[in-house]
Predict the structure.
Amino acid sequence: MAYTFQVTIDCADPHPLADWWADALGWEVEPSDEAFIRGLIAAGHATDADTTTHRGTLVWKVGTGIRHPEGPERAPRILFLRVPEPKTVKNRVHLDVRVGEEDIATVVERLVAKGATFLHEGRQGPSVWTTIADPEGNELCISHG
């Protein structure tokens, strides 16, 4: 039996980080259902303390997701979850972002201008990539494929 999955990224501030990744990948932040959230609060299943406001919208404080614009059939969802502890060591798992024919340096420059940190460049045979870190320090590689 084959399983499906989503990728979950632990972070300190999930909503701005989801915005960053959605922009970096050309994906969409999943919309918040404010009526649903308010209904759960009214029914006693959640409290106002479980929520926050992000860009003027009521959202769950614990996290949010992003998705490929063509839907979950095209690529797994990425979920950003709030955790209390800061990132302290190198990731054991990271995403390789394949930019096709786009110039890797141009993509890296754009992402660094939006808060990423350049880490290093790599090469193995004909494959080249640049490793950067998102605004919270999570590593990712930018490559052609």
About this structure: DSSP finds three helices and ten strands in the chain. Strands lie at 7-11, 28-29, 51-54, 57-60, 63-67, 78-82, 95-98, 117-124, 127-133, 139-143. The longest strand covers residues 117-124. Helices lie at 14-25, 34-42, 104-113.
